């Protein structure tokens, strides 16, 4: 395992911690209270669960960013159309919050 998830878990539990970390069994707490290995592992698991649960959001953002939303909104206002709303609705349908997407 890389040290990144370990460090993210430590900073999630104590944002002010200063540590030197080689692996889960070699963590030197320089500043801040020592956090147990089991607490760090539990936080890694929690953060992974949150990351997976937010997959739909990351997928939606990729598609939202590909839209020229200001132009769509402006065109809709000028032409009394719903292109922007329709595009956003299609993305939300494609990437539902229950992470069952993509729904084509």
Low-confidence stretches: none
What would the principal axes of the Cα set say about the shape?
Answer: elongated
What's the structural domain tally?
2
Determine the N-to-C terminus distance: 36 Å
Approximate strand percentage? 5-15%
Helix content: 55-70%
Radius of gyration: 21 Å
Biggest β-sheet, characterized?
A: 2 strands, antiparallel
Order of helices and strands: HEEHHHH
Strand order within the widest beta sheet: 1-2
Average pLDDT value? Answer: 96
Report a brief summary of the structure.
The chain is mainly α. It is built from 5 helices and 2 strands; from the N terminus they run αββαααα.
Describe this structure in words.
This protein has 104 residues and is mostly helical. Helices cover 61% and strands 12% of the residues. It is built from 5 helices and 2 strands, in the order αββαααα. The chain has helices at 3-13, 37-53, 55-66, 69-79, 83-94; strands at 18-23, 26-31. Strands 1-2 form a two-stranded antiparallel ribbon.
